[in-house]
Design a protein that fits this description.
Structural class of chain B: alpha+beta
Order of helices and strands of chain A: HHHHHHHHHHHHHHH
Radius of gyration of chain A: 24 Å
Number of strands of chain B: 19
Number of helices of chain B: 17
Structural class of chain A: mainly alpha
Largest sheet of chain B: 7 strands, mixed
Number of helices of chain A: 15
Strand order of the largest sheet of chain B: 8-9-10-1-11-19-12
Largest sheet of chain A: none
Distance between the termini of chain B: 85 Å
Largest interface: A-B, 82 and 80 residues
Shape of chain B: globular
Strand content of chain A: under 5%
Oligomer: heterodimer
Shape of chain A: globular
Strand content of chain B: 15-25%
Helix content of chain A: over 70%
Chain lengths: 351, 531
């Protein structure tokens, strides 16, 4: 084995192993969701044909959609389609599920990105301050706040924030994604990005104002998780041996925190971001409903209500794929930046 | 040693620096691109109506107007051959004249002259034939209303004959739900799915509005200047905004951000807004009735005396005032009170002594029955609970089990799996009594006869009505059917239901109920007259 092989082979094996696990995870997800959706009482052919369709019409639709085949055949057919990039056809829109999901996903993605940024913006400074002044009044107040925010139902918080901040005080828009006063060309289905691309600052601010409350409602829970994880990691790092010589050398607080403590403590939080991303997309359904936003959550909830098997499967699979890919990316990111993780994953060392 | 140093120093700082530079480059690229953006036309708010409704608009294909959300929008983009006026009379829309043959097996239609589609092409008999043939081919959605369709014979550009496979006097009324497509345009975009994909986001109609596009979750339609039926006060634009939460609809109305809210707001919120004064509740009364459907085939409810006893136990007046906030009227027969051809039947009422007597006569003791309801409908949950407590007074134990509508439809697909009792809103797609009676009570209507009721006499009366082209005779036959159904207590009618439709009188005139678009047709909305 030459030097090049010894350098790249472990990384290649790791990536291949990670991708294989991801593929198996997605297959397991498809199987589980397929079984669950078939177990729910209801008839997709009846939904597609309409509530007043005659039995003959329902049968015709059933045959046309291949729903008359045994479940195993339907499952096999679906997996085969997925491998060819086809997530099936929705019985309510009668369109390819992938097309439907791609139309609404950008809106959810925009909400999730803003939520993530807001969560980190709230959690990181608070965790830094809380860890620095451990057991101070500020630390205690932050911990109580984190417990409250972590335990508060998103749906309730969304309704409360909407009522107080938007309806009563008029500080922010009540619902929607953009005011009628602003009309920019839709390019990405993400109003904030579209406004930015259009160079319309007023529209950008308006779209941003529309996303603040939904993102805040969603961010409260996640900010609490990030705060607790980061605070604990920071406290451990600040108490570790290697910080002592740094302090002894007379490094400033900012240098200790930003150059030494935070970079070494943020790993678990980054991992948590990857883990919680799926939950963030899942929770978006409640927020999208309260604030009248389109998105994959609203699409999925409608699909479940309509017993739209392929829409549910396709949307879950799509979200699952996004979560799996983001987890792989987080792993690779950690691998690239944290030598301890790299040593443990590639060389079996736990140094 | 190298690992240790990197652990202390970390690479985050370096990466943040690199990412910062990348973000700056992306931002600059975004700003550079922004110069190419094209702004869309702005709205004149004073001439725009913002229409909030609960539920997703899955498609704009008018084939799916069996869904209220699609029906709202399709009814602005398309015309039908015939429609029902406010009095429930069938009148021509695209059809200048129409006539059902005496054998009820064909309909002659003469199209109105000078009507054009949104691209300026004239509406012709060929377009009508194409639309009906497409529905027959696909067999989805509203196609269930015209399953007797055979073919269309086109005589010339304006004259056509629609031929039916069997006598069907209901067919003419069902045409009020069939929106006519521009054949040439649809055929050009037919794809592999008979243009279902294309029609999901395009219009091919001749209606008073054209599809102006989607704005995120909103769907916008703009007035069609070439529309044949001009009307004063029609809004220039209608923005359909999906808002599922009643509380959000309420607050947006209060703030003046939406002008009308349907499907989503509860009776209490609507009543509260109406009381405040700035927003009013139109309290529309569509062709909608809340019923409890009995399983008439098996179990204790197969005995008409048990069904009658259950009907006599419910506190109708209490439920109407406390749960529905007085929005509706107590039912008096199987059909909604707003429909024609109804016999003079007594209103549902409470009589506990008679209920107990009927149960004793039927020899029923310690009766335990189960009723299914849709938990997502708040008023149904309350009504089910009220019935549970009312039945306890006559010694009947009612078990309540939630069920989704999709699961319920699957359960009635066979007569042997019909739930013992089901609380359900029954709605007529068009206001012909036969549209409810034929699908609901014919013994062979598996899937839509949700009580499993079988009565040869009723079948014969319904068949005779369907085959008759004489409106008076049909009306008489329908009345006989309803009298039998009431006597047999096939269902337990509760209320002809009023629906809260809250609106801002500063922006629009009081909305009126529609006979074919549930509960109102957005194309009928008119801007408020400014003083």
């Amino acid at each position: 084995m030459n030097a090049l092989q010894s350098k790249w082979l472990p990384g290649g094996v790791f990536v291949a192993r990670r991708l294989a696990v991801t593929a198996l995870t997605l297959l397991g997800l498809v199987t589980l969701v397929f079984a669950m959706i078939k177990a729910i009482p209801g008839d997709e052919a009846q939904v597609a044909a309409g509530p007043e369709a005659s039995p003959a019409q329902v049968e015709l639709v059933r045959q046309r959609m291949g729903l008359d085949a045994p479940l195993v055949v339907q499952y096999g057919r679906f997996v085969g389609q997925v491998l060819h990039g086809d997530l099936g056809t929705s019985v309510s829109t009668l369109q390819p599920v992938l097309d439907d999901v791609l139309k609404v996903f950008p809106s959810t993605l925009e909400l999730v990105i803003v939520t993530l940024l807001l969560s980190l913006l709230l959690a990181v400074p608070a965790a830094v301050a809380a860890a620095t002044w451990r057991d101070s009044t500020f630390d205690r107040a932050c911990r109580v706040g984190a417990v409250a925010a972590g335990g508060m139902p998103t749906f309730w918080l969304a309704l409360l924030a909407q009522y107080v901040l938007a309806s009563r005080w008029g500080l922010l828009p009540i619902s929607g994604q953009q005011s009628l006063d602003f009309s920019v060309q839709v390019r990405t289905q993400m109003p904030v990005v579209d406004a930015l691309l259009a160079g319309d600052l007023a529209a950008f601010v308006d779209a941003l104002r529309h996303i603040v409350l939904p993102a805040f409602s969603l961010a409260a829970f996640f900010a609490a998780q990030f705060f607790r994880t980061l605070r604990a990691s920071l406290i451990a790092i600040l108490e570790s041996d290697f910080i002592v010589p740094v302090r002894a050398k007379g490094a400033s607080f900012a240098r200790i925190m930003l150059r030494h403590a935070l970079p070494n403590a943020i790993g678990p939080t980054v991992t948590l971001v990857g883990v919680l991303l799926g939950m963030m997309i899942g929770s978006s359904v409640l927020v999208e409903s309260v604030f009248g936003r389109q998105g994959v959550g609203a699409y999925l909830s409608n699909a479940v209500e309509q017993k739209d098997t392929y829409a549910v499967l396709g949307a879950v699979l799509f979200v699952g794929a996004v979560v799996c890919v983001s987890n792989v990316l987080v792993d690779l990111l950690l691998l690239a930046v944290d030598p301890r993780v790299r040593a443990a994953q590639l060389h079996g060392s736990k140094r | 040693m190298r690992i240790r140093r990197q652990a202390v120093e970390g690479r985050w700082g370096q990466h943040w620096g690199q990412w910062g530079r990348q973000v700056a480059v992306l931002g600059a690229a975004a700003i550079a691109l922004s110069g190419q953006a094209t702004a869309q036309t702005k709205f004149d708010r004073s001439k725009t109506v913002i229409f909030a409704n609960g539920g997703v608009v899955a498609t704009l294909d008018p084939m799916r107007t069996d869904y209220a959300q699609t029906s709202f929008i399709a009814s602005t983009l398309y015309d039908t051959l015939v429609t029902y006026d406010k009095g429930g009379k069938l009148v021509g829309q695209l059809a200048e004249t129409f006539e059902l043959a005496s054998d009820a097996k064909s309909i002659n239609v003469l199209l109105r002259p000078g009507v054009v589609f949104h691209d300026g092409s004239p509406v012709t008999a060929q377009d009508v034939a194409y639309t009906l043939d497409r529905l027959k081919r696909l067999g989805l959605g509203i196609a269930s209303q015209i399953d007797g369709y055979d073919k269309t014979t086109v005589h010339d550009a304006r004259k056509l004959t629609i031929r039916l496979a069997r006598p069907d006097s209901l067919f003419l009324g069902a045409l009020s739900k069939v929106y006519i497509l521009e054949a040439k345009l649809v055929a050009a975009n037919v794809g592999t799915d008979d243009a279902q994909g294309w029609l999901q986001t395009h219009d091919a109609g001749s209606g008073p509005y054209t599809f102006a596009g989607r704005r995120n979750a909103d769907i916008v339609v703009s007035q069609f200047p070439g529309y044949w039926n001009k009307a004063d006060g029609r809004p220039e634009q209608i923005v359909f905004r999906r808002i599922d939460e009643g509380a959000t609809q309420r607050d947006e109305l209060r703030a003046g951000n939406v002008d009308l809210a349907v499907l989503g707001m509860g009776y209490r919120d609507a009543a509260l807004l109406d009381k405040e004064g700035r927003v009013k509740d139109a309290r529309l009364k569509p062709e909608l009735q809340t019923n409890i459907i009995f399983n008439t085939r098996t179990g204790p409810t197969a005995d008409p005396r048990v069904r009658r006893a259950i009907r006599l136990a419910y506190d109708y007046q209490g439920g109407l005032s406390a749960i529905r906030q007085g929005n509706g009227v107590i039912a008096s027969g199987p059909l909604p009170a707003t429909m024609s051809c109804r016999p003079d039947l007594p209103a549902a009422h409470r009589d506990l002594a008679e209920a107990r007597r009927l149960l004793a006569e039927a020899g029923v003791k310690n009766l335990q029955i189960t009723m299914r309801f849709q938990p997502t409908v708040e008023v149904q949950r309350l009504e089910a609970t009220l019935l549970q407590s009312n039945l306890a007074e006559i010694g009947v134990q009612l078990k309540l089990e939630p069920i989704s509508f999709a699961a319920y439809l699957a359960s009635v697909a066979r007569f042997d799996s019909i739930p013992q009792m089901m609380l359900l809103d029954d709605f007529a797609q068009f206001p012909d009594p036969g549209s409810i009676l034929l699908r609901g009570y014919r013994s062979d209507a598996v899937g839509t006869n949700r009580s499993g009721y079988a009565n040869p006499k009723v079948d014969a009366l319904l068949d005779a009505a369907k085959a008759s082209s004489n409106p008076t005779q049909r009306c008489d036959l329908y009345k006989q059917v309803q009298t039998i159904l009431d006597k047999d207590s096939v269902i337990m009618p509760l209320y002809t239901v009023g629906r809260p439709v809250t609106y801002r009188p500063q922006q629009i005139q009081t909305p009126e109920v529609s006979k074919v678009v549930f509960p109102l047709a957005p194309a009928d909305l008119r801007l408020a007259k400014k003083s």
